[in-house]
Specification:
This protein has 240 residues and is α/β, with parallel strands linked by helices. It is 51% helix and 8% strand. The longest helix is centred in the last third of the chain and has 22 residues.
């Protein structure tokens, strides 16, 4: 109780420091787990599942705080991998792990790792994308366009629309996803297929694939990771 009370008064940076140091000790030599599902495919729920079963998990808040998506966007992967923050976690969900071709980098850089891919009905996925940000591009607009292959449109706006003058700190939610259903679904389906075919070719036992709608997904994921999961266990985080 005394320790809890003391922790409640510690500055956030102090808590992060001790969390990293403890994580480095706890996770030394352990294999990593990456959730590489595209956003709005139960990534937060996967993080909750892993956390509930003893993994130290880096989620969106950690990625945002340490700017991992930014470093991905400029190709500076080693700044991510060599950081004490990254090394203090054993499992990772959300961005930037699902970003284009990053799973290939992760596979070769961490050959003992395991990977998780959830996918779902394509139209329900896109509806969830629209609902998350009221139809606007999600998060940083440049990175969103890079992920979903809309950079030509982004640069056309920068070059030809005087009112569209984003800076690095003002890039969020600047474009619309409405009317682009077919395009997004094509990117979504190609990504899922490419991931599956890559692991089928090189190391099929490293990838767990299932549909988000699968009622037994958590128990099957537990068997993949060699952990015990209760028959009645369920989790659904970050509902929209």
């Amino acid at each position: 109780m005394i320790i809890k009370n003391i922790k409640s008064y510690l500055p956030r940076w102090v808590k992060r420091y001790f969390k990293k140091e403890l994580g480095l000790i706890r996770n030394k030599g352990k294999s990593k787990v990456f959730c590489i599902s595209m956003q709005r495919n139960g990534t937060s729920s996967v993080g909750s599942f892993l956390n509930d079963h003893g993994y130290s998990v880096a989620g969106w808040n950690d990625s945002n705080y340490y700017q991992w998506s930014y470093y991905w966007s400029i190709g500076d992967y080693e700044t991510i991998f060599k950081s004490k923050a990254f090394r203090s976690f054993q499992a990772y969900e959300d961005a930037p792990w699902f970003m284009p071709d990053f799973y290939k980098v992760l596979y070769h850089r961490f050959p003992k790792s395991k990977f998780i891919l959830f996918h779902r009905d394509k139209d329900k996925w896109f509806d969830s994308m629209l609902n998350l940000s009221n139809g606007k591009t999600i998060g940083n607009t440049y990175r969103h366009c890079k992920i979903y292959r809309r950079l030509t449109e982004f640069y056309d706006r920068v070059d030809n629309d005087p009112s569209f003058n984003p800076t690095e700190n003002e890039l969020d939610n600047l474009m619309s996803m409405r009317g682009e259903r077919d395009h997004y679904i094509k990117v979504y389906e190609e990504y899922n297929r490419e991931v599956i075919e890559f692991f089928n070719k090189f190391c099929p036992d490293k990838l767990f694939v299932t549909r988000l709608e699968n009622s037994d997904k958590w128990q099957e994921l537990g068997r993949f990771l060699n952990i015990d999961v209760g028959s009645d266990y369920d989790v659904h985080s970050n509902k929209s």
